[in-house]
Amino acid sequence: MARAQPDLLPPEAEAALASWRGRALIVMLIVVAVSGLPAYLAPIWNALRAGRFPPLLWVYCGVYAAFVVLAFLPRLAARPRAWAFFALAYANAAASLARLGEPKQAEPSRPEPSPNGKGCACTCGCRSARPGGRT
pLDDT for 42-52, tens place per residue? Predict the structure, then answer.
């Protein structure tokens, strides 16, 4: 049996919060639609120049078109729009991972040995890090 959740906020505060969430989501979708255009167009442009258009680029096209539609579709409520935003971001990440592969891990950098072998790698003339060491 479902338990009723107590009201934590007064109705006017809940309405103001819902309005703010809707506006924030619209702003975020518009930013993604505008700033994402170069990021989506670059692989598509390269594929067209190369003469091959892999199927995963169709996913990019669809995801970007859906972001734009979500940004400018005012009739959809904020909650389904937010879930659609998360689903599109997940689909975009899955397509990128399938297309480009897993990111390579960089090898850990090793500190450079000191030029004189006494433990200090800087060239400013400071003393060695060893107790009683000389430069």
Answer: 888 888 898 88
